[in-house]
């Protein structure tokens, strides 16, 4: 039996979106459906599967989100922008700013007039036990990988990240491919971690590549962009509003936190676009 699917992407981070009624026709568990639909050779091909959840009480709507390997992710910034556009366009919600229940808590996306989506990603998590990160110090922690020693910053945006700032001449994508999968499964990270390699371009601009937990190399990572900006501000490298250049496009991140007062919500703004709809 065929099901109706939508393919969407935010800065090249791509997703299969399926309504729950359509998903139920597959007679598969959600992790199995994610692996089948996201397979780039035998399925549709995507970094993740999104299924709207209309049966929630704590928010206007909820979602089920799975990585391409069938694992769950507490939060996904690019996925949230695509999800927000999808449920707004199809009138699952009737207002342009609404709340979404996720495994990372309640998120608040807003559809902007120019078609972009801004998401209140909530506050960054810096307490090591909540990230989770086993060492006591989450900032400027040295980790040895192969023949390299990296100094990274553990930050959670509902999912764990390890942000590494590199020199202007380094190839962030080459670093992500070679060292990302090793760091992801390091002993310091009991729930594994996403890994960002970041170059500072100016006080208002950074460039990064990411190895995503459960996905591998992706063209963009919204929570990774947020975590990188938070780490950059805490280290005094960048200002509180920053343009983040990812392999698949550009997003803007705003956080008004400081090293002495690391609170305040993080706001992520970027595109969300349809690729195609199909019968699968």
Remind me, CATH topology of the largest domain? Diaminopimelate Epimerase, Chain A, domain 1
CATH H-level superfamily title of the largest domain: Diaminopimelate Epimerase, Chain A, domain 1
Mean pLDDT: 96
How many domains is the backbone divided into?
2
**Care to count the β-strands?**
17
Show unreliable segments: none
| Corresponding CATH architecture of the largest domain | Roll
β-strand percent reads 35-45%
Rg, please?
18 Å
The shape, in one word, is: globular
> What structural class do helix, strand and pairing data support?
alpha+beta
Distance between the termini: 9 Å
The profile of the biggest β sheet is: 17 strands, mixed
Number of helices: 5
Helix content: 10-25%
What does this structure look like?
This protein has 280 residues and is of the alpha+beta class. The chain has two domains: 124 residues, Diaminopimelate Epimerase, Chain A, domain 1, CATH 3.10.310; 124 residues, Diaminopimelate Epimerase, Chain A, domain 1 (Roll). Helices cover 19% and strands 37% of the residues. The chain has a 17-stranded mixed β-sheet that branches. Helix 3 links the parallel strand 4 and strand 5. The termini are close together.
């Amino acid at each position: 039996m065929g099901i109706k699917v939508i393919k969407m992407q935010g800065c090249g981070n791509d997703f299969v979106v399926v309504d729950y009624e359509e998903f139920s026709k597959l007679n598969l568990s959600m992790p199995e459906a994610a692996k089948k639909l996201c397979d780039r050779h035998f399925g549709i091909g995507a970094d993740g599967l999104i299924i709207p959840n209309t049966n929630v009480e704590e928010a206007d709507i909820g979602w089920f989100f799975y990585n391409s390997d069938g694992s769950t992710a507490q939060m996904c910034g690019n996925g949230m922008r695509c999800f927000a556009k999808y449920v707004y366009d199809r009138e699952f919600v009737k207002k342009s700013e609404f709340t979404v229940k996720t495994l990372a808590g309640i998120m608040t996306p807003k559809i902007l007039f120019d078609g972009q989506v801004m998401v209140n990603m909530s506050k960054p998590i810096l307490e090591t036990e909540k990230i989770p990160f086993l060492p006591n110090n989450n900032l400027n922690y040295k980790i040895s990988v192969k023949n390299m020693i990296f100094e990274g910053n553990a930050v959670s945006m509902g999912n764990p990240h390890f942000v590494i700032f590199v020199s202007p001449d380094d190839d962030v994508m080459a670093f992500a491919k070679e060292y990302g999968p090793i760091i992801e499964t390091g002993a310091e990270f009991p729930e594994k971690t996403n890994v960002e390699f970041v170059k500072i371009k100016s006080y208002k601009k950074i460039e990064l590549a990411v190895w995503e937990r459960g996905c591998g190399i992706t063209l963009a990572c919204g929570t990774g962009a947020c975590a990188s900006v938070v780490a950059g501000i805490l280290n005094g490298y960048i200002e509180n509003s920053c343009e983040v250049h990812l392999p698949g496009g550009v997003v803007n991140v705003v956080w008004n936190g400081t090293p002495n007062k690391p609170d305040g919500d993080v706001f992520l703004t970027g595109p969300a676009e349809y690729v195609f709809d199909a019968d699968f």
